[in-house]
Amino acid sequence: MKILSDTIKNIALEIRTGKTPPTSNHEYFGEEINWYTPSDLDKGKFLGKSRRGITGKAISDKKAIVFKPNTVLIGAIGDIGKLGVTSDFSSSNQQITGIYPDPKKVDSQFLYYWLKAHKQSLLDKSKSAIVPILNNKDLGQVKILFPEYISDQLLIANLLSKAENLIAQRNDSIRLLDEFLKSTFLEVFGDPEKNPKNLPFTTLEKLCSVIVDCPHSTPVKSKEATNYPCIRTSELTNGYISWDSMQYLDEDEYKKRTQRLIPEAGDIVYGREGTYGEAIRIPKTHKFSLGQRTMLFRPDYKKTNSIFLWAMVRSEFVYRQAKKKNSGSTVGHVNVKDIKQFRIYNPPIELQTQFAQIVEKTEVLKTQYQQSLQELENLYGSLSQRAFRGELIKY
């Protein structure tokens, strides 16, 4: 397979940046034409309905531009490299640039996957500023490698599309497991707002043996990964620890941050500032400490189960209580004294245990799905690299 090299400018028939019609003129906004913003990108290869639309009048008055079908849209201001392919005539705001490739040279789906795999090339071309900007001239200078024949490009695009679909299916499976646990909570205990099972209530403080706030200082992080992770609100994701952004401490810093209490497996870490309301259970794997904006609940195991308390704290019922007590203006913030007084179900411990057993079995399955997802993502990365080196198609 012969691989050609050229610039995006030379393989494109059009490189155009969108714009925003005057918002004061309501005649320019409607449902006639999809008008994409960066939040509409990275939702899948082909773009669907935009969150906001414009009218034909905005186009005819030249207050917006039109992209042809099969134009590859790229986020070019702020979050550089977000992608999508147009399915119909459409438009966008000024944060998005569209590339309409010459169909005799490069297929739009191939271009989409090439840009997805080479996001760093776009970032390298963007101007250094408070808000990164990739202008049309610099975008056009990005060099692209592509098979000589469109048929080979389509083979590569179809292969990567299949791998991408498998990843999406696995993500859906994980999402459905999370939804299953939420519905199981309601099935076992009922909606706390209505309390159909007439369960007793208490306060969070009365179900915990200890509640501590985080140290009010910025931790001094280690330059390398250690056995002392420091959990911040950014690591609290969908009820579980996100390790992607984890920061680590050395042993001395860990000891300083755990003087009041050493976190134990089963303790619950709760985000009380910024993205407040999320919580995780501490596993047995490491020696954890609290980062800023978090606090720790240690269940009183004579009264409650760690898994039940974790699910309860993450429920919509408790989140609404936190929202009412939010004292922040720009950054959300819930006071420790208010958190201690959250109203919490206090069901029989046997019922809590029944729920916990379901959660544990579901989490085993979720772990398997996550491992499978990681393998699929690794496979996709390997296929992508080999594809753009011309190693997948042999004659």
Folded structure, characterized:
The model has no long low-confidence stretch (mean pLDDT 94). It contains 11 helices and 21 strands. By secondary structure, it is of the alpha+beta class. The strands form 7 sheets. Strands 2-9-6-7 form a 4-stranded antiparallel beta sheet. It has a 4-stranded mixed beta sheet with strand order 3-5-4-8. Strands 12-20-17-18 form a 4-stranded antiparallel beta sheet, covered by helices on one side. Strand 17 (268-271) and strand 18 form a beta hairpin. The protein folds into 2 domains: 3-147, DNA methylase specificity domains (Adenine-n6-DNA-methyltransferase TaqI, Chain A, domain 2), CATH 3.90.220.20; 200-346, DNA methylase specificity domains (Adenine-n6-DNA-methyltransferase TaqI, Chain A, domain 2).
Helix percent band: 25-40%
Strand arrangement across the biggest beta sheet: 2-9-6-7
Please give the number of β-strands: 21
CATH superfamily of the largest domain: DNA methylase specificity domains
Q: Supply the number of helical segments.
A: 11
Task: State the shape.
Answer: elongated
- Summarize the main sheet: 4 strands, antiparallel
Low-pLDDT sequence parts: none
CATH class of the largest domain: Alpha Beta
Task: Tell me, rounded to a whole number, the average pLDDT.
Answer: 94
Strand content: 15-25%
CA-to-CA gap between the ends? 7 Å
- Looking at the overall shape, the CATH architecture of the largest domain is Alpha-Beta Complex
Structural class: alpha+beta
**CATH fold annotation of the largest domain:** Adenine-n6-DNA-methyltransferase TaqI, Chain A, domain 2
**How big is the Rg?**
26 Å
- Domains, number: 2
Keywords: Coiled coil, DNA-binding, Endonuclease, Hydrolase, Nuclease, Restriction system
Coiled coil: 359-386
Family: Belongs to the type-I restriction system S methylase family.
Domain Type I restriction modification DNA specificity: 14-174, 222-374
